[in-house]
Structures are given as structure tokens and as C-alpha cells.
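Suppose a colleague, Dr. K., hands you the sequence of a protein chain of 431 amino acids and asks what its three-dimensional shape might be. Before reaching for any lab equipment, you can write down a predicted structure in C-alpha cell form. Begin with the sequence itself:
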Amino acid sequence: MTGLTSWTSGRLGKRSIARSTVAIAAALTSLLLSAPIAGAASKAAVEQQFQAWLVKDLWPEAQGAGISRGAFDKAMAGLKLNWDLPDLVPPGSAPPKDQKQSQAEFSSPGSYFSEKRLQGLAGTGRSLADRHASTLRKVEAAYGVPGSIIVAIWGRESGFGGAKLPYSAVEVLATKAFMSTRKDLFRRELISALHIIEGGDIGATEMKGSWAGALGQPQFMPTSYLKYAVDFDGDGHRDIWNSVPDSLASIANYLKKSGWQAERGWGFEVAIPDGVSCAQEGPDRAKPLSDWAAQGITRISDKAFPSKELSASTMMLVPAGTHGPEFLVSPNFYVLKEYNNSDLYALFIGNLADRIAYGGGAFKAPFGDVGKMLRSDVLAMQKALVAKGYDVGNVDGLPGFKTRRALGDWQAKNGLAPTCFPDASLKGKLR
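The predicted structure, expressed as C-alpha cells, is then:
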């Protein structure tokens, strides 16, 4: 599954890495592979090793997983390595050095919410929601997920099925299983792809995907396809490449099985008054919505909170601390993060769905001047907070919710106005 992992996420998402990053990585990979590497085998020699690996290593594993010899041979017929993919580590070459701690990689999240793009997706999404209204009603009845959420994910993942999928999924997965930085992950996905082919839903040559092996209109990795893809049009095949009903229902099934709560939305943009700590966020600090309202938190739209949700579990979310939009979110927000583990992705889907369903617009509060911190600086702050007894989650230089609230708590205890987000002014104070 492909997409964008934001700087608010603590780990790589299910469909992560922006296209600009992919282009850079692909260019660097091509440059590295075209240059002589001490001890590295030639491409021809690596291709020979790959063919031997298919026979001696991959086939026994596939056989043990229940793949027939006929299906395996048909899928692997004429298969060669794709040398243009990013993140490759050919035999005999060294993996790329990890430079993540020195990168200034927290670009402003405001750029993620391109108004031009969101307006375009919303307009197309409304039109397609009308066109497929009958199917969406049936899908919503079956899975309890609003059609607007389904259509928003469909649009974000594949441009409503219009995005080109130029890669052979088997070629991509086999290449990465043989010589990528995450061989074990792609090996599992390759075996799952063989199960899909064995099951007869699609042939190896028709199984198209992204550069990372994500499949079809919902951009499922093969393991997710096996868990969540459904045949909703009744033709006997789970066809997420060509069937809109199968694609929409498969997205809904993914969300339902990930815990989507029917009859609840994803969340609300809110105004948190001065004096109410931003250090209360996180899915582990849920309260009834009425409790948050009692603290003076209001919808930024000035509308009342839905009465049916007042007793329901709700969480504070401040992805940029006090420097950006503030939210109260339902558990469904975290279900959206199961699709792509990024706060910004889930907010993008929620905002786009609201535009499709209600004609909503951009978040009212802007993202402020954030996104200029070095990851190494954030890492140093995390280590300092841990030394003071705070739980910051993963000590990885990424300002996730535990880091944000720990920082806000420390600020309050040291006479500083809590901002719940790392900035340069805190580097000398937090030691």
C-alpha cells in the first residue's frame, strides 16, 4: 500500500513515502547501480543469482505455503529483476547509510493539505458518489462505513481508480524480496501474491501495482488483499483492479475489520481555550465527548456537538501542538490510521470525506511555522525527556503524540506556556 507517512507518525505507514521521495530514491538507486561497487557482482551475475534463488530458495518456501508447482512456474516464467526500483541492495553492495537523524525532514504539514488538490478530489468525489450511489448504499449497509469515507480513500489512493499502475506486482515483489532493504517483508508479500494467483482471482501478468507492490484501486498489499478484498459484484472474483463495487466494498471491509464504529464520524476541528492543557492528547486518554465540552472545548464551526456522541469515547489530537488545527477525534480516526499510519493522512481523509458529504472546506485554523526542526534535535529532546521520567513513545526523532504531550507537561511544570511541539527555542532549555 502506498501513500505518504507524515512527520507525526512513529513508523512507516502501510502505503508510505511521497512521490517526490520515490523519484529521488529511484534516481539515487539508478546512480548507485550504474557505478562500480567494490566487491559487488555484475548485473548479469546478480540475475543468475536471482534465478537460482527462485528455484532453490523461494520455491521450497512457496511449496510449503501450499502453492502448486504449476502456479509457481507460470508466475515466474521469464521473470527478471527490475533494477529501476528504489531501496535495492544488490548482493555484494553495502546497504545505504542511515542518515535519518541528520535530516531536516519535518516539512510544514500545511503543504500536505493542498487546497487545489482537495477541491479537485472533492468535486470528482461528489460526482462519483452520485454515480455509484446505489452501490455505496449497499456497501454502507453491509459494513457500516460511510460512503464519503470510502470514496475519500478511493480518491486518495488511486485517483478513484484512474491512477496508472505500470508495474508487474510479481516482478516488484520478487525483486524486493531478493535484494531490498526489507527483504523479509517483501518475501511475505510475494508468497501472498502467489496465493492470490493460485486462487484464480487474477493472473500474474494482469496483477499490476505500484513501485512498492500495492495492488489495484484500494492499493492493498497482497497480505491485505487476502484479508480484506471481497467480491461485491458477484462475478466470482475479488477484482480490485477493474471492479468499482469490489474496490469500494474491499475498502469498507478493511475499515470494518480494523474496528470502524458505525454511526460515528471521524472527529471535529475544535477550539481549545487558554488554560486547557494540550498535553491531554492520545488514544490512551479518551474521555466522553461531554467531558471535553465541559472544559470549554467547542467546535470551531460553532455548531453543537451531536447529542448522540456526547457520551461516546473521544480523544484530543493536536498534530502540531498549539501551532496548528486542534481536534477531538473518535476511535474511527485511529482506524483510518490503520490504513496508513499517519495523522496527516487520517486528517486528509476526514477532511475530504466531509467535503464530499457536506460540502465542507479547509480546516479553519492554519498550520503555523513548524516543520524546520532537525530530526536529531527532536531525538535529543526525547532523550532528555526520557531521562526526566517521561514516556515519549518511540525515541526516534519523530514527534508523535506521546512526545508532544510529554513536552507540554514538561513546559507547564517549568513555567512555560505549553505548546506541545518541539521548536528551536526549547533546545537550550530541555537538557
